[in-house]
Amino acid sequence: MRLLVVEDDKDLNRQIVAALEGAGYAVDSARDGEEGHFLGDTEPYDAVVLDIGLPKLDGISVLSAWRKAGRATPVLILTARDGWTEKVQGFDAGADDYVAKPFHMEELLARLRALLRRATGHASNELVCGPVRLDTRASRVLVNGAAVKLTSHEFRLLSYLMHHAGRVVSRTEIVEHLYDQDFDRDSNTIEVFVGRLRKKLGADVLHTVRGLGYVMDAAASSDAGAPTSGADERR
């Protein structure tokens, strides 16, 4: 999952980014409303952490502009502890949740996990696909009850695919949602990670849809029932 943090306080921005990266997210950040608006308007983030009191363009204006442009990205706003009017304005502008400053980083992480779950139609911290279970809170993966050790990149890839289980996810979408702006988008990194992930899971749940991308689907077969021609053939 790829997140955007828009916070003008340098230290708090750095702390939030570090916590999110430590939790396995790819993170971009901005320290004013104009840059934040531009990034949120041009990049496909899975969620945004948005401060209300920003220089150049305030957070409410940024959020309102995103929503008017039809952008439905989940947004968690940061408000002052006694700023109830900011909370109301934030929700009216299209915010999905808020955290009041000062806050515990664990609360921010928990609220973001909840936003990401709801955005992809999941009610629980545990995502399940056949014998594969992924605990988003503990960052743990089990296959048939046995723990599987994944690298941070492998876990990030599996988490995105399981959040969108049953849907074909293109390589371009994976790159856009799993890596920050500095990632080399012309590399074959995704194919390498998919291959490693298949070997570690040891379960027939991660399939390639030729010409389209990848899908987590416990019911799909790598051969049986697949078309013999066209872009939908699984291998």
Report on the architecture of this protein.
With 235 residues, the chain is α/β, with parallel strands linked by helices. The protein has two domains: 2-119, Rossmann fold, CATH 3.40.50.2300; 126-216, Arc Repressor Mutant, subunit A. The chain contains eight helices and eleven strands. The protein has helices spanning 10-22, 33-42, 59-68, 84-93, 105-119, 152-163, 171-178, 189-201; strands at 2-6, 26-30, 47-51, 75-80, 97-101, 126-129, 132-135, 140-143, 146-147, 206-209, 213-216. The strands form three sheets. Strands 2-1-3-4-5 form a five-stranded parallel β-sheet, with helices on both faces. It has a four-stranded antiparallel β-sheet with strand order 6-7-8-9, with helices on one face. A two-stranded antiparallel ribbon has the order 10-11. The longest helix has 15 residues, at 105-119. The model is unreliable at 221-235 (pLDDT under 50).
Query: Which structural category do the helix and sheet elements fall into?
Result: alpha/beta
CATH superfamily of the largest domain: Response regulator
Counting DSSP E segments of at least 2 residues, the number of strands comes to 11
Unreliable segments (pLDDT under 50, ≥5 consecutive)?
221-235
Q: Kindly, what is the distance between the CA atoms of the first and last residues, rounded to a whole number of angstroms? A: 26 Å
β-sheet strand percentage: 15-25%
Mean pLDDT: 87
Count of alpha and pi helical runs: 8
Query: How many domains?
Result: 2
Note the overall shape.
elongated
CATH level-1 class of the largest domain: Alpha Beta
Task: Please estimate the helix content.
Answer: 25-40%
CATH topology of the largest domain: Rossmann fold
- Rg of Cα set: 19 Å
Please summarize the sheet with the most strands: 5 strands, parallel
In sequence order, what are the helices and strands, one letter per element? Answer: EHEHEHEHEHEEEEHHHEE
CATH architecture of the largest domain: 3-Layer(aba) Sandwich
Strand order, sheet with most strands: 2-1-3-4-5
